[in-house]
Amino acid sequence: MKHLLILGAGTAGTMMANKLVARLPSRGWTVTVVDRDDVHVYQPGLLLVPFGVYAPDSIVKPRASLLHADVRYVQGELDRVDVDTKRVHLADGTRLPWDLLILATGTRLLPEQTPGLTGRRWHDSIYDFYTLEGAAALARRLSTFERGRLVVHVHEMPIKCPVAPLEFAFLADWFLTEHGRRNDVGITFVTPLDGAFTKPVASRVLGGMMAARGIEVVTDVGTERIDEDEGSIVAYDGRRIPFDLLVTVPVHGGAAAIGASGLGDAMDFVPTDRHTLQTKAHPDIFALGDCTDLPVSKAGAVAHFQGDVLVDNVLRHIDGLPLSPAFDGHANCFIETGFGKAMLIDFSETTEPLPGRFPLPGIGPFTLLEESVTNHLGKLAFKWIYWNLLVAGKELPFEQRFTLSGKWS
């Protein structure tokens, strides 16, 4: 038997294991997945925990329960990958052989890299919502925050789900309005980008929505440090942005063990072919999801579209066939805008979000680059789709490749 080893049992790794275990055993291969714990978090749900829409325990399931019965699950902390001997070493001394390796190790938050961020104000007046602990703590703080300046802050790119900080600002506007506190709380959105979002058309639309709701947008902010005494973000250009409550998205990096194994770049992200998903370090190593260095959104939908390409390329690689350069940077995501509405964007590496209908041209039911109640319901329904279809490796009614069908400029 030959061994396919997947490092990471998050969205990308779980989905890939469940897709491949249906195809590989007949070719004489086993499928093994490794992760450090048995806690799989539905990460899109973290955004809604601070506002009481989801309870923390409602977005968590055991990792092993999401894997097909024929997938072997090994729980252990990754120490290093030895490319020469084709062995993965775990911190407890376990060694796992591999003939093909898929890296799905995701990203990690590095708040300690920003001076002052994790000092005495951490989880007192400074919070993240990208972790279960941070989102739950922020929910408690928001319930008592009655007046002052709420600042939503992105330190630097790349980050997981680039629209999530925007969503947080919109939901904060809704939440504070619903609780009668919006007139006493100012909201500021601070970004290192030159606009509200990375794509110009969407940036103009989202920026206009923020302006209409009285959310101040401060752009081109390179964060040097947090002034704990003053309670402000200090930018490299000397600007100071005061806050009473700071909701921050810290610096992101890849897994430390990836860097230690010589498979990562300066931030431990994996250099990966942008179209085939084969890593540049070794032909028998592939990567997908948040761990790659690809210039695309780090989001579950992207991992899904990459997964469709990677299953085909893993089978082609095993059969000695040329790899298919099929991944086109396709991404889509719902953007919660508050008050029971949401927006949907669908784009690729070369084509920015455009208005239209999705997934059926002219019919929808979802509207692109436009708020609707249907989009909000779609966002909520995606939780069921995630647990029962996406990570289970089942087919979804969305095309793997980006298409202009149903869109207009």
Helix count equals 7
The radius of gyration is: 21 Å
CATH topology of the largest domain: FAD/NAD(P)-binding domain
Largest sheet, spatial ordering of strands? 5-2-1-9-20
Query: What assembly state would you assign to the polypeptide chains in this entry?
Result: single chain
What is the strand content?
Answer: 25-35%
What is the SS-derived class? Answer: alpha/beta
Label the CATH architecture of the largest domain.
3-Layer(bba) Sandwich
CATH superfamily of the largest domain: FAD/NAD(P)-binding domain
Report low-confidence residues grouped into runs of 5 or more: none
Mean pLDDT value: 95
The CATH class of the largest domain, by name, is Alpha Beta
Number-wise, the strands total 24
| Net shape | globular
Number of domains: 3
How far the N terminus sits from the C terminus, by CA atoms, comes to 52 Å
Helical content class = 10-25%
What is the makeup of the main sheet? 5 strands, parallel
SSE blueprint and pairings:
Elements: E1 2-7, H1 11-20, E2 29-35, E3 40-41, E4 60-61, E5 72-75, E6 78-82, E7 87-90, E8 95-97, E9 100-103, E10 108-109, E11 126-127, H2 132-142, E12 148-154, H3 164-178, E13 185-190, H4 200-212, E14 215-218, E15 223-227, E16 232-235, E17 240-242, E18 245-249, E19 252-253, H5 256-260, E20 285-287, H6 300-318, E21 331-338, E22 341-347, E23 356-360, E24 364-368, H7 373-390
Parallel strand pairs: 1-2, 1-9, 2-5, 9-20, 11-18, 12-13, 12-18, 13-14
Antiparallel strand pairs: 3-4, 6-7, 7-8, 10-19, 15-16, 16-17, 21-22, 23-24
Helix pairs in contact: 1-6
